[in-house]
Specification:
The chain folds into two domains: 200 residues, 3-Layer(aba) Sandwich (Rossmann fold), CATH 3.40.50; 182 residues, Glycogen Phosphorylase B (Rossmann fold). The relative contact order is 0.12. It has 17 helices and 13 strands. The mean pLDDT is 92. Helices cover 49% and strands 16% of the residues. The chain is globular, with a radius of gyration of 22 Å. The strands form two sheets. A seven-stranded parallel β-sheet has the order 3-2-1-4-5-6-7, sandwiched between helices. Strands 10-9-8-11-12-13 form a six-stranded parallel β-sheet, sandwiched between helices. It is an alpha/beta fold.
């Protein structure tokens, strides 16, 4: 292909420029602009569009109010509500078809099944490739399974951050659409990598007196902090003192109240701190023995990759894409289930084997430098784009 194709990177923006939004933004910044012309698209103006607007053109695809509701609200509405929602989705696709034509878009990459539904029919009508990029998706059950079937049929390629996500998210659909599935590992922004490398240097100079864990996650049931707290209580009864700091905003006040109540009733106040939202998680990692994630479901958490660059051992539940990043007993410890008994077992292994943690730290750091830089990720996406464009 001799000319630079216009490629639209579309992200349905929610509330925070973190996680999946940050990953998409990182990709837009990192692609080789001598090979392609990246354009960023979203349904609203946001912190993300403002940030990326300094480097690329921005397209806003305005949607009806009904399509601005959360995924769960859309899925849990009545049958009549779903029909009205479907009509709005069709209107959104027809308007997107015009955007494709007016801006000479040749390929679209979007994140999440919701985005595929909003854009996919428009791409089909204009006969341009659509790449469905997956971070975190609900599992294919019930109405969500229908959504996934439609999204697969509209997509030219479906990219996950880890191979284990294929079966974990899509179960039997993974084998049916295996020819469309691929894996490209996510990366971090270079400035984030640079901060993590400074932490790596600083961490080697520090001596840790306590076994301290950091859980960087929003306070809500999916992140499963309650089971981590119960695991620490079990270990305390065995004479093993583990300390956990929680870094993340509260999104479920009732759940937060339950956590604090349990901590107080079991005299665990000295073992836990709630730090709230922190924008210096990478820097404070230097003060912790391990990064701990006990979520019930995940994509590939950026926090794990940040910890690997920083040389901080990871102990995490074996869910989503985590097993593709954390190699058990080589770069970290995988927790077999999100229950307190499994969490306490993994924490005891880490507590009892400090030399093993040092080995994990070194190997994880090496793997991060090989696998998770922006250049590595961007080159794989670029090659995919040209493969799809040339096969039209």
């Amino acid at each position: 292909m001799k000319h630079k194709p216009n490629i639209l990177f579309y992200y349905y923006y929610y509330e925070n420029y973190t996680g999946g939004a940050m990953s998409m933004g990182n990709l837009v910044r990192s692609v080789d602009k001598t090979r392609i012309n990246p354009i960023f698209g979203s349904q609203i103006e946001s912190e993300m569009s403002k940030d990326l607007g300094e480097q690329v053109d921005i397209l806003i695809h305005k949607l009806p109010n009904r399509l601005q509701q959360t995924n769960s609200a859309a899925l849990n509405t009545s049958l009549f509500g779903k029909i009205i929602w479907a009509k709005d989705v069709l209107k959104a696709n027809l308007s997107f078809k015009k955007i494709i034509k007016n801006n000479d878009i040749e390929l679209v990459i979007c994140r999440g099944s919701r985005s595929v539904l909003l854009l996919g029919f428009g791409c089909k009508l204009k006969n341009i490739p659509l790449v469905w990029d997956i971070a975190l998706e609900k599992k294919s059950y019930g109405f969500m399974r229908l959504i996934h079937r439609i999204a697969f049929s509209l997509s030219s390629k479906v990219i996950t951050e880890a191979k284990s996500q294929h079966d974990f998210i899509f179960n039997s659909l993974a084998s049916k659409y295996s020819h469309k599935l691929g894996v490209i590992e996510t990366s971090l922004r270079q400035n984030i990598i640079d901060r993590a490398l400074k932490t790596h240097t600083l961490r080697k100079e520090k001596t840790k007196e306590k076994f301290k864990c950091l859980i960087p996650a929003t306070i809500d049931p999916r992140k499963n902090q309650f089971e981590a707290i119960k695991a620490v209580n079990k270990l305390k009864d065995q004479g093993i003192n583990i300390y956990i700091d929680f870094a993340g905003p509260v999104v479920d006040e009732n759940y937060f109240s339950e956590l604090k109540k349990y901590i107080k009733e079991n005299d665990l106040e000295d073992h836990f701190q709630f730090l709230g939202w922190r924008d210096d998680v990478i820097e404070i990692l230097a003060h912790y023995t391990i990064l701990l994630l006990v979520s019930k479901n995940e994509g590939v958490p950026r926090a794990i990759i940040e910890a690997m660059f920083a040389g901080v051992p990871v102990v995490a539940t074996e869910v989503g894409g985590i097993p593709d990043v954390v190699v058990p007993n080589k770069t970290g410890i995988l927790i077999q289930s999100p229950e307190s008994s499994a969490i306490s077992t993994a924490l005891k292994q880490a507590f009892d084997n400090p030399d093993q943690l040092v080995a994990f730290s070194k190997e994880a750091h090496i793997q991060a430098l090989k696998r998770f830089t922006p250049e590595v990720e961007a080159k794989q996406y670029e090659d995919l784009f040209f493969e799809l464009l040339e096969s039209k």
